[in-house]
Amino acid sequence: MTAVRLSGIEKSFGSRPALLGANFVLEWGEVHALLGENGAGKSTLMNVLAGFYTADAGTLAVDGAPARFETPAAAAEAGIGMVHQHFKLVGPLSVLENIRLACAKRAGWKTKAEALAAMQTLGAELGFHLNPQARVDEMAVSDQQKLEIMKVLLAGARILILDEPTAVLTEEEAKAALGLVRTLARGGRAVVLITHKLRDVLGFSDRVSVMRAGRTVIDAAPAAGMTAASLSEAMVGTAPQGEIAPRTAHRLKPDMLRVMKLSAPASAHGVALREIDLDVKGGEIFGLAGIGGNGQAELVEALIGIRQLSGGDILFDGVDAPPTPEGRREAGLRYIPADRMGMGLFGELPLAVNIALPRLLGEKAERKWLVRKGWMNQLARAAIADYEVAGAAPDLPVRLLSGGNAQKLMLAREFAGEMSVLIAHSPTRGLDIRAVQAVQARLRAAAEAGVAVLLISEDLDEIMELSDRVAVMSHGRISPAEPVAQVDRARIGRLMLELH
Amino acid sequence: MGKLIVSPRLAAPPRLAAFTMLGGLGAGMLISAIFLLTQGLGLSDLASQFLGYTFTDPAGLDQTLTRAIPLTLVGLSVAVCLRVKFWNIGVEGQLWAGALAATTVPLYHIGPEPVHLWIMALAAMLGGGAWCGVCALARLKLRANEVVTTLLMNYVAYMLAQQLLYGAWRNPEDSFPVSRAFSPDETLALLGFGHVHAGIFFALAAALFCWWLCSLSRVGYMARAVAANPLAARAVGVPAAAVVLLMATLGGALSGLAGFTIVCGEEHKLTQFIGNDYIFPSIVIAYLARTSPLGVVVAAVAVAALYTAGDSLKAFYQLPGATVLTIQAILLLCVCCGEFLLRYRMDWVKTVKVRA
pTM here? Predict the structure, then answer.
């Protein structure tokens, strides 16, 4: 029985086509993986199904009957629920309030207690433990996603669309979540997994569709017959390059970034930093693994100078770090945030302003009294070319870029000028293979050029592949660093859980 | 069956922005005209009052330009503050603070006599700047909402002025609640066209300065960053607090300068009537100009013309003073509605039944 059939879907944003006749067929009872590079149109196609966008052309059928969803509510009425990569949560409200807001009407809850009971029942079943009173904008990203999944299920979705569901989860959590997704499908629902991770496809999906440049290139093929090589070839057109060449040996410069007994009080629902010691040498990549929400965000804020400390020292190249964010930037600190649009880029401002802004700051500013558009546009065009930012123009508002291209822009801006310390927080999350490779290559190149790179990531593969030394963050503390050759995954997993 | 679908635009083309602005203004004028017709005016009266008197009659034009001087400055004040999303609802208080600060110069003989005028301008900017800057500090340090603090500071300044006019600064000769008259060195020269005084150069220079600051200097780009995403601005290294403080203080200084142009250009002494009814027009002007400093000049002249027409309506047709306020409100509402069309796209689509 066919749950959903999308045929010949077309959709343009302004003059930019995103879908050029895409097809998609979803059966009841299956987990269906939808693959594609950033900007291939996966999210757009699923947004059409979920009623967030209306298609310019093409047909949509649910349960064999033609349909057209003008609103997400209409799609939800038909049993379609989507968990977005960019969460649709109300930040200032609590977990329970978000759930009631999204589901109370459909679930028929009259009281807060009913909602709480339903939430706790589902939470126990899924193995998620969320504090119902926690404020959403103060929760870790991984918890926010758990809340999103709960919301969709509590609203009674029969057709689930999960956009990059495992991107923010740890390996164990991801396996549990994918296992649950399979159970839900076996129970008669239909699940779409939008993903970049081949493991999700090969290990947990029944069938797979692949999109490339707005078209469906593999249409509902059985996942069993697929290999990692055949899928990635379908996604990128040509087989991606294999291993990146190992880094050449180079001299390390000690103490480029040294943190001593750093402590900071916890903000509401946050994590306190407890006597953190850290020493990142110039020329190395220091991998900080750990489950999200264990103080990584707080540590980053302390390092870039926007969090009040209760004790400890931060030294750049042996001297005390300047107290202000602008001073630290001038001292050579650069930062790639986990939340690009929240902490890094200015979505409403043109690309050229995003690129030029840091060059206007501080004593060494390149332009102070007369900032010409032509100069900014020139910088922007150079960045677009150097970093291969697709679909970009100097005057384009940055919010219109796809995730991978926005990240490339982020790198172009941060890597400009004299960099001595780089903090990269989940720099490849949610990116496609090619963008991941580009970002990782840039990180390696930075280290080779003598930069002290602190890589904070929940993706263990990435940590193991890139880092020279590895430490684990848990409950606001950091384990002693070890050379990557001496640690194994199981050990790191234990550290993540044991460090109290 | 069809259905109207309203969807947000990804990016609005600049031509559409101009079109919606003009359309909003046009609709506003049409509704205002209908409103005036219901108040007993004839069509020909409308034309003669609004176009004839305000722009072609020298007396009307004189009044319009004179009034446009402080209106430009308070419009700029709100506009530069809005550049960092700082809502300055306190231009009157800042204007009073500027006027009071300027008045201290002749009353207490501060500085050499020949340059009194320049010292007065400086004092007015300091007074107005402090009046607004303290609200910015309260927002940055205490998280006090500036809409409330700037609004309340209006009353503080007004009461302070009353205290001084009925107390220490009362005219010693006749005991009227006005300061003693300023000497010719302490007033702005007339330009030979009615009441239009040299303050017009201050207003135009201020507009040019604000245009440079917002559009060409690095401060303008830092302000955009702070307005667009304060957290990212701090993370990138924009001194966000300093930028907000600077823009808000500059905004206050511009309102203070407006107070200076009134006491030195129009009244030639401190009176009780220098800072009334500026809050609403200042917001209307900044909004109509979309916070563009050069646009503020045009919008200020337009709003000043509206007041000129309103005065003659009051004199010849016995319409109440609130008429002008009503028309300003109609224009603002219409332009705001036009904004909706700019942000959202409307499509007429055929609906298909959805099976649940």
Answer: 0.75
